[in-house]
């Protein structure tokens, strides 16, 4: 035993502290791989031990989180079992900076792991980030399209119900959050059916068009024009007709001048981007 390296003891410590149904020996085997020297991986995994991280360097967990996608790419998806526990530990770290770092890279990790592992291991973490602080949620929001496009259609549709929640932030003055939401919704139009766009994305788009901040409104005009284009090209023409009627009712006939101005700007964007044939526009 005296011949064992300090790394081995570090690894044993972390094994004993895990709330796992595996024995320490089985736990150790689950983290064995042949891509990089095992001692190097053991050292990396040991850095996420909360007690050690607090005594050595409070930033160490953040650095581990930052490099985790690179480690996952190096080991390959066949060795994800080596990193899974560590990833879940970091995803529930008390420091929001650690969770924020993972939120910004979860879409990259999803590409590395593939759809099956993503659905089983990353989607629960992703759902947790959606309910986190704004500093964490923005990481998920900035790459919302990148992540959702990797999911199966049925799983992707489940998030339609949660998009509305992005309109609510910890600080209402955080207008960049809403601007990012509008940008992401433009990309998300390609992932959903005409009915889903009309039922779920349209109310959010109309809400953003009436935002107090002009930068948010300008992106939202583009969102509505792209929505008109997408619905016009759909096989069911009723959606685009209903949408245009609502634009006239909600903005053109608005008793506030700002609403009527919004209608003019939306018309301008629709015209400039050739979202409708001119006879339909007229």
TL;DR of this structure?
This protein has 16 helices and no strands. The protein is elongated and about 70 Å long. It starts with 5 loop residues before the first helix and ends with a helix.
Description:
It comes from Rhodinocichla rosea. Residues 1-31 are annotated as: Disordered. One of its GO terms (molecular function) is protein phosphatase regulator activity. This is PP4R1 phosphatase. This protein starts with 5 loop residues before the first helix and ends with a helix. The chain is built from 16 helices and no strands. The protein has two domains: 32-151, Alpha Horseshoe (Leucine-rich Repeat Variant); 177-281. The protein is mostly helical and 282 residues long. Helix content is 71%, strand content 0%. The longest helix has 35 residues, at 96-130. It has helices at 6-17, 24-29, 38-46, 50-56, 60-75, 80-91, 96-130, 134-142, 144-148, 153-157, 175-188, 194-209, 214-232, 238-252, 257-272, 278-281. Mean pLDDT is 87; it is low at 1-20.
Question: Descriptors for this entry?
Answer:
Leucine-rich Repeat Variant; mainly alpha; elongated; 282 residues; 2 domains; 16 helices
How would you sum up the major sheet?
none
N-to-C CA distance: 85 Å
Instruction: Tell me the number of helical segments per DSSP (H or I, 4 or more residues long).
Output: 16
* The CATH superfamily title of the largest domain: Leucine-rich Repeat Variant
Indicate the proportion of strand residues: under 5%
Uncertain residue ranges? 1-20
How many domains, as an integer?
2
Q: Categorize the overall geometry.
A: elongated
Which CATH class of the largest domain?
A: Mainly Alpha
CATH topology of the largest domain: Leucine-rich Repeat Variant
Q: Report the CATH architecture of the largest domain.
A: Alpha Horseshoe
């Amino acid at each position: 035993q005296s011949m064992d390296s300090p790394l081995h003891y570090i690894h044993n410590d972390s094994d004993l502290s895990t709330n796992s149904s595996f024995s320490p020996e089985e736990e150790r085997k689950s983290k064995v791989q042949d891509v990089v020297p095992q001692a190097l991986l053991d050292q990396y995994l040991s850095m996420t031990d909360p007690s050690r991280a607090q005594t050595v360097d409070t930033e160490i967990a953040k650095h581990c989180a930052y490099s985790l996608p690179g480690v996952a790419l190096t080991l390959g998806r066949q060795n994800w079992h080596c990193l899974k526990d560590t990833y879940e530990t970091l995803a529930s770290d008390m420091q929001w900076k650690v969770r924020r770092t993972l939120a910004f890279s979860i879409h990259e990790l999803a590409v590395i792991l593939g759809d099956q592992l993503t659905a089983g291991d990353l989607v629960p973490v992703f759902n947790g980030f959606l309910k986190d602080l704004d500093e964490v949620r923005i990481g998920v929001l900035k790459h919302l399209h990148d992540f959702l496009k990797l999911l199966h259609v049925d799983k992707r549709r489940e998030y339609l119900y949660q998009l509305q929640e992005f309109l609510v932030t910890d600080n209402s003055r955080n207008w960049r959050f809403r601007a990012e939401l509008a940008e992401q919704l433009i990309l998300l139009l390609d992932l959903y059916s005409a009915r889903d766009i009309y039922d779920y994305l349209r109310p959010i788009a109309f809400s953003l068009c009436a935002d107090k901040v002009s930068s948010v409104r300008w992106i939202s005009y583009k969102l509505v024009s792209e929505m008109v284009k997408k619905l016009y090209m759909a096989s069911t023409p009723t959606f685009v007709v209903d949408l245009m009627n609502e634009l006239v009712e909600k903005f053109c006939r608005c008793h506030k001048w700002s609403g009527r101005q919004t209608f003019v700007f939306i018309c301008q964007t629709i015209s400039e981007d050739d979202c409708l044939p001119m006879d339909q526009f007229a």
